[in-house]
Amino acid sequence: MGERVEEPDQGLSRRQLMRYAGVGATLAAATTVAGGSAAWAHEDDDRGNGQPSGPSGGSKGRAWRAGDHHIHSEYSGEFDTSVNPPVFHKGADAVYPIVTNAIMAKNFGLTWAMCTDHGGPTHSKVNLEQAYPDLLLSRRLVPDVLQFWGMEFDAPAMDHHTLMIPRHDDEAKMLYELERRFAKNDPFPTVPPDANSEAKMIEFLKVAKGLNPKPLVIAHHAARSATGLGVWGQDTPHEFRNGNNAAPDIYVGFEGAPGHQAGPLNGGARGGYGNYPTHGGYDQMTARVGGLWDSLLGEGRKWWITATSDSHVHHTRGGSDFWPGEYSKTYVHAKQDYTDIMEGIRSGRMFVTTGDLIRSLDLSATSRRKTVTVGETLTLDRRSRNDVEIEIRFRPLDGKNHHGDRPEVNRVDLIIGQVTGPVSDLDAATNPTTQVVGRFGPGDWQRQGDEYVIRHTVRDADASFYARVRGTSTDELEPEADGLENPWDDLWFYSNPVFVRIR
């Protein structure tokens, strides 16, 4: 695969954008410190790698495009419920205008982004009448960042979720109806008795599944309320399974690396995980080898991970956040097109990284001249001898990240687990077959141009399996529980999996 730098549209000058954003010297200072960052794109070279064409047609023009689907604006506010209808006040929880987030997303190398503001009593009307017009303005002012419409959905019986609305003429109406009918905090003054039930969540997902075009739902900071390792809080394994069963093409994953990663810079916890910590900045559901994510993958579920900023207030203003793209990125292999990016997320064509440790990651499985990449399934005949070659290709950052460091990949791990089918215990949270089958250091990979290549062969594969990859700048064999370490010193990347089905 080749690589190029995405050239942003010139459009308005930075000074004009600053003026429209209305954020003055604080934003200007942050931009100067961060420096401009072009969005790196990793072009598909049409190797016949089995990528689905998707509704946009064809894979030509697809590239690794960085984005963030969990960002807050000033529309994460507060409500005065002493009056009816409640009165909304902007800026109580998050402080930046929508266009400010878009400017900073562009500055830190993102080509797509999404503001996901908190709900509340009658918030569906606030989104429709106040926030959406600001989104339309931001799209015009910052056209080279694709800006999705959606919200941080108040999921019935669960913690927050991304509700991502497809870009179409009725996007505002679609979100309004879904939030009004199903967000647990939207009803006022009377709350229906089932508004916060798992049954309501399943009803929401089934309704979403029937929409055309289809939205996406991704769980936020899934183990933030967990009180221990495997001691779950608001979000439980059976809720993920039941939701994914109800709408497998809608409810597709959770944040592997939650936001609020700058917490330790102001004395707080990474991710705001005050009960049980993250590991290397990643939620325990993702970071634990053989844990919940592996349990879900071991069923053959197409369940993906992402990384987000959850930006509310930048750490230089006393918050616990980085700007969108400053520290965490979700890369989607897609065209610079709303539909293809959304379908890339839905299909799992993604990897995640922190601290710009890498800027591309390709994972493939090949056997009998057939090749698949992340999110795809390679199907083989059990009656044949099946040697499967796993290939990992990655590009490290060529230069400094937004902390002024030159991060280096210290190790890459290949993780493989068996796919054994549905489990009888819907709260199962382990996959004992999952293991790290290879740990590769700089002496183990080959350089090809500006890529590094690792190959591993699975001999005589006679059972279905999946493979995924992680890498780190540290010397930790497993990501350790986080304390107050500087997040820039503890960087990790993760791929989504490839599947191999033996039939």
TrEMBL record:
SUPFAM superfamilies: PHP domain-like. Residues 38-65 are annotated as: Disordered. The chain crosses the membrane at residues 20-41. The keyword Translocase does not apply. Keywords: Membrane, Transmembrane, Transmembrane helix. InterPro entries: Pol/histidinol_Pase-like (IPR016195), TAT_signal (IPR006311). It comes from the Bacteria. The keyword Hydrolase does not apply. This is Phosphoesterase.
